[in-house]
Design goal:
There is one protein chain. This protein has about 160 residues and is mainly β. The chain contains one helix and eight strands, in the order αββββββββ. It has one helix at about 10-30; strands at about 55, 65-70, 75-80, 85-90, 100-110, 115-125, 130-135, 145-155. A hairpin with a 3-residue loop joins β5 and β6. The radius of gyration is 28 Å and the shape is globular.
Length: about 160
């Protein structure tokens, strides 16, 4: 009686090559931050990375009853001015009673990298009226865009 292999030589070589490739792929994912391959416990930031600047008194969502009111607020200007960003706009109250507004002005780098946030409070805008608002955000970073989050509440 002769023993015959159940798999061909090419199938076995293919399986061995697949296991080797998987092993090399997993080994490539386990490299660390230090020269000896161990993970570093200290996070590192790149030389160009700076922490975001946040100047917010009330966390998003505020306190009490409010509604999102982005459509009530417009940005007239968002420009870098020296080492600051000057942001101005208007708020128009469509409600039938006086309303207060909490406007969060974010300066973004790209689509989602928040570089600064500042809260602007407009205490009361009469029913059907409009008012101007402005703020200065202290960051000298260039190439940012302004994005708003707005909350409206009874004044």
């Amino acid at each position: 009686m002769t023993l015959r292999p159940t798999r061909s030589l090419s199938a076995r070589l293919f399986a061995i090559a697949g296991v080797a490739a998987l092993g090399l792929g997993l080994a490539g994912c386990s490299g660390g931050d230090t020269p000896d391959g161990r993970a570093s416990s200290t996070p590192k930031a790149s030389a160009t990375e700076r922490p975001a600047i946040t100047d917010v008194d009330t966390p998003a969502g505020g306190t009490g009853d409010y509604v999102g009111a982005l459509k009530d607020v417009q940005v007239s200007s968002c420009k870098k001015s020296g080492s600051d960003w000057a942001v101005t706009g208007t708020v128009e109250n469509p409600a039938k009673s006086a309303q207060g507004y909490r406007i969060y002005v974010s300066l973004l780098k790209g689509q989602s990298d928040t570089r600064a946030v500042k809260e602007v409070d407009v205490a009361s805008v009469a029913a059907g009226a409009s008012d101007e608002w402005s703020t200065t955000i202290g960051t000298a970073e260039s190439g940012l865009s302004c994005v708003l989050r707005v909350e409206r509440f009874a004044a």
